[in-house]
Amino acid sequence: MTTSSEPQAAAERELCGLVNGLAQQIAVHVRECAAVLGLTSAQATALREMTGPMTMRELAERMSCEPSNATFVVDKLEKQGLIERRAHPTDRRAKQLVLTAEGDALRERLLGLLVQDSPLAGLTAQQQRTLQGLLEQAIIRS
Amino acid sequence: MTTSSEPQAAAERELCGLVNGLAQQIAVHVRECAAVLGLTSAQATALREMTGPMTMRELAERMSCEPSNATFVVDKLEKQGLIERRAHPTDRRAKQLVLTAEGDALRERLLGLLVQDSPLAGLTAQQQRTLQGLLEQAIIRS
DNA sequence: GCATCAAGCTTGAAACAGTCAAGCTTGAAA
DNA sequence: TTTCAAGCTTGACTGTTTCAAGCTTGATGC
């Protein structure tokens, strides 16, 4: 049995479960916020990652999915008039994605909703800072 | 603009993004570990939650999904000979899910893989304990 | 200049995930 | 025993995601 001989592994398992639980709660939260604005989860993720003009590939990487998937999601956002595909200024192969005025406004509303009542609201400002530090370290390392 | 007048909100946004990033990394990690064993993410989640015999409903709750979805996933696991639907000892309506010997062995391998190279491996034991405390508080509150 | 290969994006097919409504069997309670 | 609720399954449907294939364009080497 690895259980009794390696308590460290057991602790990591438990922590892994906790992070998974939090991740799931956040996923639900994102879906709910997105639904309020008439978006799906994937669309909300795309909108959230659109911090500025970028190419399809960049967006796909930020969403950690295939470019073909990004194509699908951007299609939907474009149909809703939230995003535009423009010609890339220097690379004629690439598209430059730009949020429209409505897209930008909706993005602001989305970010507001995401913060509100988030699963992290139960932590104090100090605790949030601590958590942020740990997360940054964990993410950078991997 | 809420940005300049509310620095607190900006900090929460950043933290929210970090948690989302970690959640995504973990999702990718789970998928990769599952793929090594010939499983999908949902199948791996089900296997991970099978800490012992339980009903379909219990499993669905642990996976935080609908029972019909659990039916779908258990079907796949059953086809692979990893899990069995038995008659429930006291309630004839319910099924009792039990891992087969192969299912149990695969579960052990999965848990091992999940811990290995997890996005949390970059933290010390002490940091992991701190993180665990914060996550427990965040999850309980919401 | 031109051939070749790689990069960026799209398309179509397919699998997977997830919800919802409807239906069946069974348990529990009036 | 009648009625209602619980457990599970099925089927239809939507959304997500991946993969392979194909097109255009950029970059590299001859």
TrEMBL record, chains A, B:
It comes from the Bacteria. Residues 12-140 form the HTH marR-type domain. SMART domains: HTH_MARR. Gene3D superfamilies: Winged helix-like DNA-binding domain superfamily/Winged helix DNA-binding domain. InterPro entries: HTH_MarR-typ (IPR000835), MarR/SlyA-like (IPR039422), WH-like_DNA-bd_sf (IPR036388), WH_DNA-bd_sf (IPR036390). This is MarR family transcriptional regulator. It comes from Planomonospora alba. The lineage of its organism: Bacteria, Bacillati, Actinomycetota, Actinomycetes, Streptosporangiales.
